[in-house]
Design a protein that fits this description.
alpha+beta, 6-stranded antiparallel sheet, 6 strands, WSC domain-containing protein, WSC_carb-bd, signal
Length: 127
C-alpha cells in the first residue's frame, strides 16, 4: 500500500497534465525522452559568437521536435532554444541572458506542457 501511495502523485500528475508537475515527471514513463528545462532567456545576445548555430521554424514546435531537428544538424545532446515556432540549436549560450521564468509565458503549440518563449524571450531545454 505504501508503494502505491508513493506512486499516486506521479499518476495524478501524468493523468492531469498540469503545469505544476515538473517536466521530468511528465516524461517518467519514457526515460529516453526526458527533458530538462534550463530556463527563460533574453533572446538578443543569447548565443556565444564562437558558434552561430542554426535555426529553423518548426510546425507545432515543442522541445522533442526541436531536439530532433538539432540532432540532424549535428547538435545532439546540446541545448535547444524555442521562441514561438522557431527552434535554435547551439553548443553554448550566455548564462547571463537568463531571466525570470515568468517572461516565457507562451505555451508551445506542439505541447501545452512546455513553454516556447515570450515576447523578446526564449525557453531553453536540454535533452
Amino acid at each position: 500500500m505504501a508503494k502505491f501511495l508513493g506512486f499516486l502523485p506521479v499518476l495524478v500528475c501524468v493523468l492531469s497534465f498540469t503545469d505544476a508537475c515538473p517536466n521530468t515527471i511528465k516524461n517518467a514513463f519514457n526515460p529516453d525522452d526526458t527533458i530538462k528545462e534550463t530556463g527563460c532567456y533574453y533572446a538578443d545576445g543569447m548565443f556565444i559568437d564562437a558558434d552561430s548555430g542554426t535555426s529553423a521554424d518548426i510546425e507545432n514546435a515543442q522541445p522533442q521536435k526541436c531536439h530532433k531537428f538539432c540532432a540532424e544538424k549535428g547538435y545532439s545532446n546540446q541545448f535547444v532554444i524555442l521562441q514561438y515556432e522557431t527552434c535554435h540549436c547551439n553548443k553554448a549560450f550566455r548564462r547571463h541572458a537568463k531571466r525570470d521564468a515568468s517572461k516565457c509565458d507562451v505555451d508551445c503549440r506542439g505541447s501545452h506542457l512546455f513553454k516556447c518563449g515570450g515576447k523578446g524571450f526564449a525557453s531553453g531545454y536540454y535533452l
